[in-house]
Q: What sequence folds into this?
C-alpha cells in the first residue's frame, strides 16, 4: 500500500506519466461530441436523418451497445483526461498556483463564448439551450459564472458549458484533498464516489423545493473524472492494485445508481459507455504511433476546447441556411468549415494570448515565492557553548 507519510518532494510524490496518445483521444472526443449534437438535431429536433447517422447507428449503437447519438461518449473521454492530467498538477503545485493556472486557461475563452451566445440570443439569431425565450440581465450575468445551470428551472445560454462546472468542481476538490493526494491518493476517488452517491440520494429523497438537479448531473459525471484519476494513480504506481480495483468498483456503483435513478439523459447504456471509454483511454493513452502525430489530429486536439465551446452556436443556423442548397452532407460540411474557422479565431486570439499571460504570470509568481523564501532570515539558534555560558552566568548572579 502507498505510504501514509507525506512526501516532501512534489516530483517524487507525483511521477510523470507520458500520455503520448492524449491528442488522439481528444481528436476522437471532438468527433464524438460533434456527431452527437448533429445526430440529436437531425433526428430529435428536425425529425429527418442523414446517411452517416444510419452507418454510425448500425456499427456503434445497434452492434456496439452505446447510447443513441453516441451520447456522453465524447464528454466521458474529456472528463477522463481531466482526471488523468490534472491529478499530478494538483499534487505538485501549491493550491493558489494550481487554481490560477487552471482557471486562467479556461475562463477567457469561456467568457467570450458565453458573451457571443448572449448576443446571438438577444439578436434573435440563436435560441436558448433551455426553455426560456430569452435571457434577462441577471441570468446573463449568472451565465458567466455557470450560475444559470443551478437555477430552477435551468437557464442555459450555452448548454455545453455545464461540463465546466464538473471540471472546476474537480479542481477545487483536488485543492481541498491535496494533503490526502500527497499521502494516500487513492482515498480521493473513493471518498468522491461516496459523496456523489450521497448527492444522488439527497436529490432523490429531499423535498422538491430543496433539490438541485444540476448537482445530480455533476455527481453522475464525476465518476468519469475519478476513473481518469485512478488510471493515473495506477500508471504512476501511487496505489496498490487491490485498492485501484476497489476505487474503480466504487465508481461503477455510482454509475449504476445514477442509471437506476434516471439521472442520465439519453438512454441506459452509460455503464457500458464508461467501460468502453476507460478501455480506450488505457489502450490509447500511451500510444505513440504515427496516428498520434498526424497534423489533423494535432490541430483538432489543440483547438478542442475552442471547438467544444463554439460548435453548438454555429450548427443550427448554418445547417438551416445551407441544407436547401447543398443537401444534408453539404450542410454538415459547411457547418464543419465555419466551426473550424471560428475555433481557429478563438484559439489564436483568445486562448493563446490568455495561456501566454497565465504562463508568464505563474512563472513570475513562482520566482517571487522562491525569492521570498531565500531572503527570509532563518531563526537564529544559539550555539551550545553560548547557552552554557549564559546559563552559568545567570546562576552566578
A:
Amino acid at each position: 500500500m502507498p505510504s501514509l507519510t507525506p512526501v516532501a518532494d512534489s516530483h517524487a510524490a507525483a511521477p510523470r506519466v507520458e500520455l503520448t496518445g492524449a491528442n488522439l483521444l481528444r481528436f476522437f472526443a471532438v468527433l464524438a461530441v460533434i456527431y452527437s449534437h448533429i445526430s440529436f438535431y437531425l433526428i430529435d429536433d428536425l425529425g429527418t436523418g442523414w446517411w452517416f447517422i444510419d452507418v454510425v447507428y448500425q456499427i456503434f449503437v445497434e452492434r456496439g451497445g452505446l447510447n443513441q447519438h453516441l451520447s456522453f461518449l465524447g464528454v466521458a473521454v474529456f472528463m477522463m483526461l481531466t482526471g488523468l492530467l490534472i491529478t499530478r498538477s494538483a499534487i505538485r503545485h501549491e493550491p493558489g498556483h494550481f487554481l490560477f493556472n487552471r482557471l486562467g486557461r479556461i475562463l477567457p475563452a469561456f467568457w467570450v463564448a458565453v458573451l457571443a451566445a448572449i448576443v446571438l440570443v438577444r439578436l434573435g439569431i440563436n435560441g436558448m439551450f433551455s426553455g426560456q425565450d430569452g435571457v434577462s440581465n441577471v441570468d446573463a450575468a449568472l451565465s458567466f459564472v455557470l450560475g444559470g445551470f443551478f437555477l430552477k428551472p435551468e437557464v442555459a445560454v450555452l448548454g455545453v458549458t455545464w461540463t465546466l462546472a464538473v471540471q472546476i468542481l474537480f479542481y477545487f476538490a483536488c485543492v481541498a484533498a491535496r494533503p490526502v493526494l500527497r499521502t494516500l491518493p487513492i482515498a480521493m476517488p473513493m471518498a468522491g464516489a461516496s459523496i456523489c452517491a450521497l448527492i444522488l440520494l439527497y436529490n432523490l429523497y429531499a423535498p422538491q423545493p430543496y433539490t438541485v438537479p444540476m448537482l445530480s448531473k455533476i455527481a453522475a459525471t464525476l465518476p468519469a473524472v475519478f476513473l481518469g484519476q485512478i488510471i493515473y494513480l495506477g500508471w504512476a504506481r501511487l496505489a496498490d492494485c487491490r485498492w485501484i480495483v476497489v476505487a474503480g468498483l466504487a465508481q461503477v456503483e455510482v454509475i449504476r445508481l445514477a442509471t437506476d435513478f434516471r439521472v442520465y439523459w439519453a438512454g441506459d447504456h452509460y455503464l457500458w459507455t464508461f467501460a468502453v471509454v476507460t478501455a480506450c483511454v488505457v489502450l490509447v493513452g500511451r500510444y505513440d504511433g504515427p496516428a498520434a502525430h498526424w497534423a489533423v489530429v494535432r490541430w483538432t486536439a489543440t483547438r478542442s476546447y475552442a471547438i467544444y465551446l463554439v460548435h453548438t452556436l454555429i450548427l443550427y443556423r448554418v445547417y438551416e441556411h445551407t441544407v436547401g442548397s447543398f443537401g444534408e452532407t453539404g450542410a454538415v460540411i459547411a457547418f464543419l468549415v465555419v466551426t473550424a474557422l471560428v475555433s481557429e479565431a478563438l484559439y489564436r486570439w483568445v486562448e493563446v494570448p490568455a495561456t501566454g499571460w497565465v504562463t508568464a504570470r505563474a512563472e513570475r509568481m513562482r520566482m517571487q515565492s522562491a525569492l521570498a523564501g531565500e531572503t527570509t532570515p532563518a531563526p537564529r539558534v544559539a550555539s551550545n557553548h553560548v547557552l552554557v555560558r549564559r546559563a552559568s552566568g545567570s546562576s552566578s548572579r
Remarks:
- The CA atoms of residues 307 and 341 lie 10 Å apart.
- Residues 1-10, 379-397 have pLDDT under 50 and may be disordered.
- The radius of gyration is 25 Å.
- The first helix runs from residue 10 to 13.
